[in-house]
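Thread: sanity check for a docking pose with NAP

Original post by kr_44:
Hi all, I'm comparing my docking run against an independent structure prediction. Below are the sequence and the ligand SMILES. Could someone generate the full complex and paste the structure tokens? I mainly care about where the ligand ends up relative to the chain.
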Amino acid sequence: MGNKLQSFTNPKWTFSLPQETPSYTHEQHAYTIEMAPEAPYTVKWGIMATGGIAETFCKDLLTDPATRSVHDVKHQIVAVSSSSSVERAASFIKKIDGPATARAYGSYAELVADSDVDIIYVATPHSHHFQNAMLALEAGKNVLCEKALTVTASQAKKLVAKAMEKNLFFLEAMWTRYFPLSIKIRELISSGEIGTVYRTLGEFFARLLSQNFLVHLRLPGLESKDHDTNPPRPADLSCNENTPQAAGVVNFPDTHRMVSKDLAGGALLDLGVYALTWVFQTLYHVQPSATKEAPRVLAAANQYHTGVDENTSVICHFPDTRAIGVATTSMLVGTSPHGEATAAPAVRIQGSKGEIQVPHPAYRPLAYSVIRKEGDGDVEVVKCPIPTDPARGNWGHGMFWEADECARCLRDGKKQSSTLPWDESIVIMQTMEEALRQGGVEYPELITTDIYDAKSPLNTGNK
Ligand SMILES: NC(=O)c1ccc[n+]([C@@H]2O[C@H](COP(=O)([O-])OP(=O)(O)OC[C@H]3O[C@@H](n4cnc5c(N)ncnc54)[C@H](OP(=O)(O)O)[C@@H]3O)[C@@H](O)[C@H]2O)c1
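Reply from moderator J.T.:
Ran it for you. Here is the predicted complex with NAP included:
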């Protein structure tokens, strides 16, 4: 028997087998354990802002990775900052049932100066992302920044340039991309399962005020009573967000980040970015990198009375690959009139040999279907439930997969994720910027500038 070894790693142990060993069985014990179990790579997170999505993300970070069969990385929340007050940061740590050792800060500047933080999660409104992410990068911190990445493409480019200059990891937090479901669908496309993909139709309409939607997105001030005790449920994307009193007026105060111009409100940057995610991950991401073609953009948007877009459609035209993607988003109507997953799919990926359909909600789908042109007419439905952690009240939202990706990139010294590379985030921002330009939406200078200012009110506070 030769002495060359082959290795494989199971979730907990690394074994070495003689190369000829045909297979491992418990009975034969034909293996020798040569190494201690590999300790998972642990990432220390600093959390910037204490709003709705920060809460959801942190609760995901606190789940045991083993509950999703992940054993090579794990996460620690070591610090939380609030631009409102240190007390708010401290009470956030309690609210998420976070570690007692986590440090609370009353400013974002203190967080980015904490030498014990590996990566900052930026969870402020998108109006703030450029200044806040730059604050962290300038301080030498790796960054995971919530979607929409920025307000303008130029801001996104500057953040990428800064990450390159400082040799730091930087990623847009488009969590849906890291779902096993998304990975599988991209694989199906690349392997030609539905032939050449010529069209993707993606909708993201949401009834933002439905109770179920609130459970997921944690819109501040609009929490349902069972918000913290019920496990997450699929979002209700049914229609009619109008107030009962006035048609066409949504139930957000005009100062709310969903509709305020000062906070880069509007349907496209908040919701439509998911519809575009499906267009991009099925028509752009899968193109060969040498010949990647950015789309030509044709858009229409109606404006809400605050001046943000309320109802927007974007056609992405890829003439070289003969593909077209249509992304639609609205705060006024819904994908599913009755709120059930039985309505028309949220996403249709249409190829020469068949089609893949994804039910709503487009940001957190729990299944997909494959319908083949040839065949017996069967629809193959694949369910993709999101794992939960019994030790954390059966919590599990699906944001942990993007966190795992960050951890692996940091462990492996990667500065960007191949699942959502920098150039793609920039092209998506260019697409949204162009769509909003065509729709006549203009945001204020304070939030569109690409000049970094550590003392910008966007960095110094929400007090
Ligand atoms: N991935 C997802 O599924 C998902 C879901 C929802 C939202 N998001 C994205 O996450 C970001 C935050 O959304 P959110 O729903 O968490 O918002 P939110 O609940 O309003 O929280 C935003 C937080 O940002 C901080 N902030 C700083 N200046 C602010 C200002 N002038 N106005 C309001 N907040 C300010 C506040 O925290 P401090 O006072 O502690 O500083 C606030 O709690 C947005 O970019 C949104 O698109 C992502």
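Confidence is low (pLDDT under 50) at residues 1-33, 207-240. Hope that helps with the comparison, let us know if your pose agrees.
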